[in-house]
Amino acid sequence: MKWLSILLILIAISLGILMLLAARNEARTAKRWPQGGQFVDVNGTRLHLKISGQGPPIVLIHGASGNLNDLTFALAPALENRFTVIAVDRPGLGYSPAFNPKGETLAEQADVIAAAIRKLGYDKVYLLGQSYGGSVSLRLTLDQPDLVAGLVLVAAPSNVWEKGLGTLYFLTSNPVTGPFMRLLIAAVTPASAVQSSLEGIFAPQTVPEGFGEFVGTGLTLRRSQQRANALQVAALKAEVRQMVPRYGEISVPVEAIHGTADTIVPCKIHTKILANQIKDINVTVLDGVGHMPHQTDTAVVVDAIDRLAAKVGLKSAP
Questions:
Q1: What mean pLDDT is predicted for residues 90-110?
Q2: pTM for the whole structure
Q3: 2-312 adopts what CATH topology?
């Protein structure tokens, strides 16, 4: 009994230390990477977004674990001279708060983003989604066809894959292991592990200089964002399965860009199949390119957006 009491005390002390470290790190993160855009109140929640440039509106939706800074690092600056760029933090990520305790579904995220776009005064926009953001963009296009003038998908999950949830996502989304794993990650993740993770996401290309600092890697490690991200990713496969039979409904022009070396969202499982599921789609396959073509091959993505804009001819923002 004595040793059990000692063990429980040691566990309590360890958890207390981890909680203090996590809180300290999250406070430092808030100071280092403060929210830099504006909030739009919609559907009982808030969406954080950043607007820049002038011209026809294009909405940029980031992927898993990320935030709007990912799409304002290289892509937004390349578009601002001829588009009004609206980059959004998806619910639960960046500075947009989570609102569903079970994890925001693709449909819920699409609904909130669409409501924010309309509240800003836009009734027609171009839409770009990268990785998980591509899945949200597909759902938004299906559910709000009158709002989307054209769609650009970058390394987007669009079809059902065989593998299950990865170990880390399983542990961080699980109701039993999740709280401790998220606490541990927020408290003691070293900078070297963050850099290694970035390198894995960009492989086989290299991480652009200054990207990690610009995007705000510390934002990803916050417990709240870990939880929202893990729950969303855990539900993605089933939600994509539900969307697949509806792809024939998409009538707007679609540009899809995907690299053959993408091991996170393999091109052959997703975009190459999607090419036969959407009526008006143009696919650009990049040989030897990984998961982040909007960073490593920005000009190719910009060309796809310009092709779409030339085809659709959406008028400038009101």
A1: 98
A2: 0.96
A3: Rossmann fold (3.40.50)
